[in-house]
């Protein structure tokens, strides 16, 4: 009798994803990532594989292709509905097709469909994206390859479905290697995973390679922190335009990227404000009771959340104002309104925080945010909002739009707790709120990150910033980035500019005399162009949501198609039309991210609650509702009937479920 192990389908058949290969290239603070996903259809019928996966929230996906046999099919960027229709039409006519699209609700969730894999056929999918690396508390640059896509909480009425699979159950392997280049020496590379020794490629140590140690299991995020010498020195990168693109367009003209990472004098750093209103918003949803990461099973997200908040509370200056909100499906607050910080109020708050548990159900962050923003501002006490959350929500863009709308009256500092926290939400909150984002995946680096954010909130920031460009005669610049409103110590700011005018051709443009004291380099892979396009696309998308009448969609689609960079309004589509073969038979869909074990384990948990814990129903009812909603979305056989029919059928089917689960594990 055959054993079924790893990730399987409802019919106990293996999913077709076999392996993932990732190549990382880092140039200073910009990363280019190329992922190759290999599939093989081992079934006797054609399949459609569906793969939902996370990417960094500010990533610019710029290439999508498939290799079938010896044939490479390169995808095009098209308007999303047009791409979906072309994909469906291709499958209906028996052709192979591939579709990659970004979630309309959250920019860090992508779904890929591999349609029309004939029996026994293999396909190799190539995905490329570029992203900026975030600065850490100790001046390191953080790169993260997410292995975990935590289930995103869906507010009532949301239509997006996001699934997850325990990382320990993924049946595919990961091969990862990276190349590092910088105009300054590379000091070291640290990681949450075991690495082979860093290999330098030249004597001045400005080039190096890094690889995961042998035997790595893709059961957690792959995190690298890169340290350079002279980290605070400003840098500029000038990149030539695409020769095939029209002059005067973003892709046809040279683009410059300037990085500012200032180090303020000690006299400024020692000047700490004693005023301010500090509002802490703490996630207490059910998922906060899970482990921080795969290494520290004993340390849960809610424990780290409490420790972080306790440290912040004890570090606040006397005389400021503060309040603490916690949220799940609903929200609570310790004080009716912000109170003055003194020994009495601090001790009261500390006691309440120590009692907090992960018992408030879902993750409705919009409700408490709206309440906080509706409160009257305290005169001469600038508001500083600290948000702690472990995962994400499907309405990320609505949340960010609300934060930006209120950015003139507060700063927002965000903390992603544990592995799998949404980078789009965490980084977006800080970006739109003019604050700083931190990711806390263990206790070893929690304290410096927390204290750094508090220092940002307490120290004076540089405001009323203007940028003057000294360029050769006849050359002008169009700034593509949103204006910089403030700069903190330890906060990096990037400025993208499109160079136009007579003599702007890169072979005749010498910018060296105009960037004195700046490390200047040139690249030619269109990396900077794509990051600039992504920055402009995100700004236009935000403007479109604020206007609420779709006025920016046409501009976004045009820019996305022109630059080859993904957006919420476009998708990558590839169709294999060359060989003329027609795929016979109906397609069978395989959801690669779905774990059948998880489905039946959830059903068993619901059965146990209804059968043995009815006296404590008030405690678990919201969690059970959330679990039932998740189960319905899985579309597994018998699941909707089991969930919808109520308690009687759940109990009646108890032994049937036991048999099914035993079959999964034993046979």
Automatic annotation (TrEMBL):
Signal peptide residues are none
Return any one Pfam family short name.
VWA_3
Q: Which UniProt keywords apply?
A: Coiled coil
Q: Which domain of life is it from?
A: Eukaryota
Entry's InterPro entries? VIT, VWF_A, vWFA_dom_sf
Q: Where does the VWFA domain lie?
A: 277-458
Stretches of the chain forming a coiled coil according to its record: 339-366
Tell me which residues make up the VIT domain.
Answer: 1-131
Q: What is this protein called?
A: VIT domain-containing protein
Tell me what organism the protein belongs to.
Amphiprion ocellaris (Clown anemonefish)
Highest lineage ranks of the organism? Eukaryota, Metazoa, Chordata, Craniata, Vertebrata
């Amino acid at each position: 009798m055959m054993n079924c192990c790893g990730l399987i389908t409802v019919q106990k058949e293996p999913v077709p994803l076999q392996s993932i290969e990732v190549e990382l290239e880092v140039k200073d603070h910009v990363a280019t990532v190329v992922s190759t996903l290999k599939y093989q259809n081992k079934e006797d019928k054609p399949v459609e594989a569906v793969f939902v996966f996370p990417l960094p929230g500010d990533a610019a996906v710029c290439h999508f292709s498939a290799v079938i046999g010896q044939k490479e099919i390169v995808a095009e960027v098209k308007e999303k509905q047009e791409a979906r229709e072309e994909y469906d039409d291709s499958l209906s006519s028996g052709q192979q097709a591939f579709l990659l699209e970004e979630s309309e609700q959250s920019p860090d969730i992508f779904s890929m469909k591999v349609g029309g894999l004939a029996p026994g056929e293999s396909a190799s999918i190539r995905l490329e994206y570029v992203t900026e690396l975030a600065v850490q508390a100790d001046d390191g640059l953080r790169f993260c390859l997410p292995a975990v896509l935590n289930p995103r909480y869906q507010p009532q009425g949301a239509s997006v479905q996001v699934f997850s699979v325990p990382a320990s159950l993924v049946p595919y392997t990961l091969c990862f290697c990276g190349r590092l280049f910088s105009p300054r020496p590379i000091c070291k590379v640290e990681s949450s995973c075991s690495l082979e020794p860093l290999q330098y490629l030249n004597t001045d140590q400005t080039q190096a390679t890094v690889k995961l140690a042998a035997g790595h299991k893709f059961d957690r995020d792959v995190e690298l922190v890169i340290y350079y010498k002279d980290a605070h020195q400003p840098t500029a990168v000038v990149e030539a335009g695409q020769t095939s693109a029209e002059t005067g367009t973003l892709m046809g003209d040279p683009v410059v990227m300037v990085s500012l990472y200032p180090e303020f004098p000690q006299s400024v750093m020692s000047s700490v404000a004693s005023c301010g209103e500090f509002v802490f918003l703490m996630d207490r949803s059910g998922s906060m009771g899970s482990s921080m990461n795969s290494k520290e099973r004993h340390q849960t997200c809610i424990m780290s959340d409490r420790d972080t908040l306790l440290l912040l509370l004890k570090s606040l200056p006397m005389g400021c104002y503060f309040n603490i909100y916690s949220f799940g499906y609903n929200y609570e607050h310790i004080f009716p309104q912000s109170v003055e910080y003194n020994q009495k109020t601090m001790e009261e708050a500390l006691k309440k925080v120590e009692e907090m548990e992960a018992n408030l159900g879902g993750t409705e962050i919009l409700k408490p945010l709206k309440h906080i923003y509706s409160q009257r501002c305290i005169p001469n006490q600038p508001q500083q909002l600290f948000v702690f959350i472990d995962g994400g929500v499907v309405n990320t863009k609505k949340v960010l739009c609300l934060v930006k709308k209120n950015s003139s009256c507060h700063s927002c500092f965000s903390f992603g707790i544990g592995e799998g926290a949404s980078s789009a939400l965490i980084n977006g909150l800080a970006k739109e709120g003019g604050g700083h984002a931190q990711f806390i995946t263990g206790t070893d680096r929690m304290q410096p990150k927390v204290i750094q954010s508090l220092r940002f909130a307490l120290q004076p920031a540089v405001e009323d910033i203007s940028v003057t460009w000294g360029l050769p005669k006849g050359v002008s610049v169009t700034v593509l980035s949103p204006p910089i409103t403030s700069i903190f110590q330890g906060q990096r700011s990037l400025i993208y500019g499109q160079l136009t005018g007579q003599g702007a051709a890169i072979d005749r443009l010498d910018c060296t005399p105009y960037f004195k004291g700046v490390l200047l380099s040139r690249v030619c892979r269109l990396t900077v162009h794509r990051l600039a396009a992504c920055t402009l696309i995100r700004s236009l998308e935000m403007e479109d949501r604020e206007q609420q009448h779709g006025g920016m969609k046409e501009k976004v689609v045009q820019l996305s198609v022109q630059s080859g960079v993904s957006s919420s309004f476009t998708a990558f589509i590839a169709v294999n039309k060359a060989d003329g073969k027609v795929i016979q038979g109906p397609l069978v869909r395989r959801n690669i991210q779905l774990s059948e074990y998880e489905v039946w384990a959830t059903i068993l948990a619901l059965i146990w609650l209804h059968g043995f814990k009815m006296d404590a129903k008030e405690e678990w009812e919201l969690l059970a509702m959330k679990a039932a909603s998740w189960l319905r979305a899985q579309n597994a056989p018998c699941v909707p009937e089991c969930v919808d029919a109520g308690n009687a059928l759940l109990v009646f089917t108890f032994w049937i479920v036991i048999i099914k689960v035993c079959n999964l594990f034993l046979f």
